Each structure stands twice: as C-alpha cells, then as structure tokens.
Amino acid sequence: MQPETTLFYDVDTQRDFILRGGRLCIAGTERIIPALRAMTELARRLEIRIVATTDRHFAGDLELERNGGKYPDHCMDGTEGQFKIEATMPQHPLFIENRHLTHVERAAAIAWRGELIFEKQLFDAFAGNRNTAAILAAILRDYSDVVVYGVYTEVCVADAVRGLQHFGKRLHVVTDATADIGDEGPSFRQRWRDGGVDLMTVAEVTSRLES
After folding, report:
1. CATH annotation of 3-210
2. First and final C-alpha spacing in the chain
3. What are the domain boundaries of the chain?
4. What tens digit of pLDDT does each residue of 12-53 get?
5. What's the pTM?
6. Is 199 helix (H, G, I), strand (E, B) or coil?
7. Which long-range contacts (CB under 8 A, 24 or more apart) does 18-23 make?
8. Which of 96, 166, 180, 201 is the most buried (most CB within 10 A)?
9. Cis peptide before 152 (omega within 30 of 0)
10. Mind listing the pLDDT tens digit for each residue in 137-178?
C-alpha cells in the first residue's frame, strides 16, 4: 500500500449512528471514535484521498417507517444527527446529491481533491445515490487499494464492500474502526476474508502506509 494509490472510504460516520442518543445508534458505538479520528488524521497527514457516504433523509423517503419502511427517522436533512461526528468532520468537502449531474458537475467531482461525500436516501450508497457507481469508477482508475471503515458492519459497511468489489481493487476493512450492530459481525468478516478482503487494524494500516 502506498499513500498515493490508496483511497479511504468512510461509511456513514454521522452523529445519529455513532453518538449516544443518536436516532440509530447502537450502544457502545462511541468506542470506535478514537480509531475514526486516527484514520482521518492519517489521511490528512499522508494526503490520502477520502471518499465518504452519508445518509441524508427527507420526509418522503421510502426507507422511513412513516412511509412504510423499516427505520425510524434518522439523519434527517438539516438536523444535528445528519452531520458527521467531529472526528471525521470534513475540512474541504464536496457533497454529491442524489440527482442528475451535468457533465461539468461530474467532472468537477472526479477532479475534487478534498473530501468527496455521497449523500444517499438508502443505506446502500450504490442504490441510494444514482451517481456513486459512475463517479467511483472514474476515480478508482488511479487507485489500487481501498480502505473501508465506519458503521455498521452488517448493513452499510457490508453494502460498501459488496459494491466496491466490482471495481477490482484490493479491499481492506479496518476492524477496530468499524462497529457491529449485533453478533453477526464475525460472520461478515469471515466471508470477507474468504473472499479476499484484507482485515486490518488502524495500527496495521498506519504501519503499512508509513513504511
């Protein structure tokens, strides 16, 4: 792994998922905040590109219970819970909305050197934002390794891994910067390992990138 050919993929590190009292926070998730901070600081120190996903929900979204979906209101547009936590707060972000982009907008997103953030209305960023797959396909031409971390293992992180596997890059999941919902996390990690995904700790990622 080399910093110039490695991309960090930050999955949904938002207040409603991670901070105590968040609308969809699993008890104990706050324990990964130091690891998330370490990943963000490593990226900035080594000038590693960060791509992130975030939920951005509106009243009519089908994922919400109010509309017959599975989940209570969370990460609602403009609320505190929608924002990323302080440890992963972007410094120079470009937010990619789930709408048609012009050729100029798409080119600007691909060329953007700050944090690129895909806003989505479904947990799966490849289904919840119509631009994710096409923009990532263009960006990832310049990268050989993608390092994934965030929440939650069994849902959004699993969706991210599944979607990213289509691009043929070396995938790494940072286990101590990722939180589980329940007791199925180990089975997901075993399937990833069996499928060629590299499981690493923050310390191991740091060592390999700084060597």
Report:
1. 3.40.50.850
2. 9
3. 3-210
4. 999 999 999 999 999 999 999 999 999 999 999 999 999 999
5. 0.97
6. strand
7. 18/85, 18/151, 18/179, 19/85, 22/74, 22/81, 23/72, 23/73, 23/74, 23/75, 23/81
8. 96
9. yes
10. 999 999 999 999 999 999 999 999 999 999 999 999 999 999
User: Contact, 199 vs 48, CB < 8 A?
Assistant: no
Give me the torsion for CA of 148, 28, 18, 201, rounded to 10°.
-20
Answer left, alpha or beta for residue 133, where phi above 0 means left and psi between -120 and 50 means alpha: alpha
C-beta neighbour count of 36 within 10 angstroms: 26
Contacts of 183 (CB under 8 A, 6+ apart): none
Q: How far are the Cα atoms of 131, 132, 153 from residue 135, in angstroms, in the given order?
A: 6, 6, 24
